[in-house]
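Researcher: Last one for today. Full complex below.
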Amino acid sequence: MIKILKYSFFDLIRSRWSLIYFLFYLLLAFVLLFLNNDISKAIITMMNVIIILGPLIGIIFGIMYYYNSLEFTELLLAQPIKRSSIFLGQFFGLALSLSLSLVLGLGIPFVVYGLFQSGEIWNFISILWIGFILTFIFTGIAFYIALANQNRIKGFGMAILFWLFMAVIYDGIFLLLLVWFKEYPLDTFALLSSVLNPIDLSRVMILLKLDISALMGYTGAVFKNFFGSGVGMSASISILFLWAVVPILAIVRKAKRKDF
Amino acid sequence: MKKIAILFTLYLFFSLQLDAAQFTVCGTCEIASIKEAISISEAHDTIYVKGGIYAEYDILIDKPLTLIGHDFPEIDGELKSTVLTIASDSVWFEGFIIKNVATSYVEDYAGIRVTKSRDFTLINNKLLNTFFAIMLEASNHGLVENNEVIGAAVDQINSGNGIHLWHCNNIKIINNHVTKHRDGIYFEFVDDSEIIGNYSHGNLRYGLHFMFSNRDTYKGNTFEKNGAGVAVMFSKFIYMYDNVFKDNWGRSSYGLLLKEIYDGELIGNTFERNTIAINAEGSNRIEIKGNNFIGNGWGIRVLGACFNNNINGNNFMYNSFDVAYSGHMNDNSFDGNYWSDYTGYDLDRDGIGDVPFRPVKLFTYVVNQVPESIIMIRSLFVYLIDFSEKVSPVFTPDKLVDAQPYMTPFE
Amino acid sequence: MIKYSKLNKKFGKLEVLKNLNLEIRKGSINAILGPNGSGKTTLIKCLLGMVIPDSGTIEINGKEVKGQWMYREEIDYMPQIANFPPNLKVKEIISMIKDIRNREARDLELIEYFGLQPFLNKQLSNLSGGTKQKVNIVLAFMFDNPLLILDEPTNGLDPVALLKLKELIAKEIKRGKTILFTTHIIRLVEELAEDIVFLLEGKTYYQGPVAGLLEKHEAKDLEHAIADIFSTHVKETAE
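Model: Here's the assembly. Have a good evening.
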């Protein structure tokens, strides 16, 4: 697996798209810092970009990479190597190269603008961490969708739809239900709904680290108690990890049975 | 006849001055207690108290006296009762430490109680661990200046206020530092008074609390990290200038609560990082001008029955919600402010944006309806619905717009 | 050496292999022929473990391959379409495969044979189809394994390279390797193959020497024999 990972990674970091992705983040971070010159404001905007764009890029690159390297994958399948190693190697190679673009693209401008002197370093690190795990989650899901769909158009469509659901539609339904059932106590429902979607969970976890956290306290102690407590925080982190691990297990399972 | 009257007055004045005696109190002096000094003194005498600890309580000043502490003599009430009661006009009390006042659920024990008196001066004192620190009842024309009031309040039920005024008028509260009480400064039925340059922070309920008080001014004060900054309720003609309200964070916490307020002015204040900068309910004819709203959860939250308020020339920067509004009717003016969320353009370069700004977003409306939905803040879906509402308003008051949004912040 | 027994494979409703039995002798040179969709590629992919049969077994040297992967150590495979990670260099892809096999290889010899030295430091996305196919050949031949599987090996090769490939295969034949290959080029079959495996509708229609097939169909050459099979087959389906 490590060998496949290594070569996939080398292949990908040299690709034009990785460079574009990296430059995009680099430019974005510089522009934000230049316009705001206030690291904490820049971090909030950065968060919005990461929790929406990170998953989208993960989904698109995951799908494209799988389909584009399918013929080479067939060559690899004929080599004396386990199937799961091939797909996991490719998956980790892709997820790591995307994460590298993210970390460097955002990291360099923040370091240049004096991140280490500001108190925002932990907020920044938590943003990077979230970006990292979201990339893994959505790249994994894209890989799974690609594995499950021979038809490329269908696979691509499903992956984009999945992203759209998680990033927008889910929240729409969630908000609708909240308004619909506003007569009832909704704290637990709201908490549960936001914890189950990795994009929402990431957003809430970052917001709670920033000043805005007190707003959460506004509606009731439930959010703050949950996310403020060690148990709640570790539960949230576990859920994110679960979201990352389940697609990987699904990839392994699917890869075992698939015909190429 | 008039001349004679003046001469007589002058004579009286000088004779009093000349007749005034002076006493010195210290641990090793002939007079070792303050109570004793008061009892032997006569009106308009001066009592000097030297440094040291005086374990006394229920001290009563019932004649016009001047008491001056040197090296901060400590009057330790030993948690028994009220320490000092002033029940005479023209008392001057300066330079003492008063500490350890009894806590009670029945009696309002205080460090210094001024009752039915006028022309008093309380200056440069320190009040430590007092239940109520300075309590003024039915008194007027007094000055409370430069006192340091540090309580030990833990919860609201068994704590008292820092500077507490009831049925007073023409009082000046200047440059005091109040912390760790229930309310930092409390006004009930207090008219024509001024609160200037005080620093009220870390109090459990409000930094400053007005009830049924009219024609008062507070200016240049800082209210920081209180349960809530300032509550102004059921009052008229309150003038609020150049104050700072900051870091009043917490569940239903706010920088300034306006409730049933008429004809006030709120000018040149700064609201920074409060959950709600201004929470207004039943407030009418208030001029809100030249204030800074920076980084608050809500800038102005209007809860209904607010009419004829003018909100002009303010800066609204980086608030999660600039304005929240209940109801469909708007009778308040929001014109001519600077909004950091404004994305319009200024083609004629007159400094005023060419398209109006709508400070109430759809999501603000939703959060008003369903508070739990706050957890959706800053999600993509919320941006989308806010955008669509901006394009064609359905839920938010149609007329609540800033028709002249400024392109750059006010200085 | 290789034994397929009662192999079945369906892709959805399409039955590709129907109860297929086949035995390949050690050291034999086999051309796998058949119309499109007769299961040639599936047959090979089953052997390599890329397609998992619904039922039946495949044994190599008496060992069942199902669920295994180590047996591929002994197999060299050249896929039909050569498509490589675009941003790797030629020498990197070679060392990657060597890395995976973790074995010595005769890559230098083959690189020289096909004149690939000038391309070693080029990225694979910059290569022409023919050059990629040469790289594909190097990757397939460099481990010198006893079993060699070639899927349409002549695809996209220029005449010179084609000649060289044929020479190379001929050399391998002399060294006693077992070879399986698919092709549409009849001449290649005639030149190289000892045996023919003719698949029809997912079954082995004929296995044996070229001469045997000619005899069976009373044809003067292989092309006619195949044409005959096709016409009979078409008749059968028409009935």
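Chain A has one domain: 2-257. The mean pLDDT of chain A is 87.
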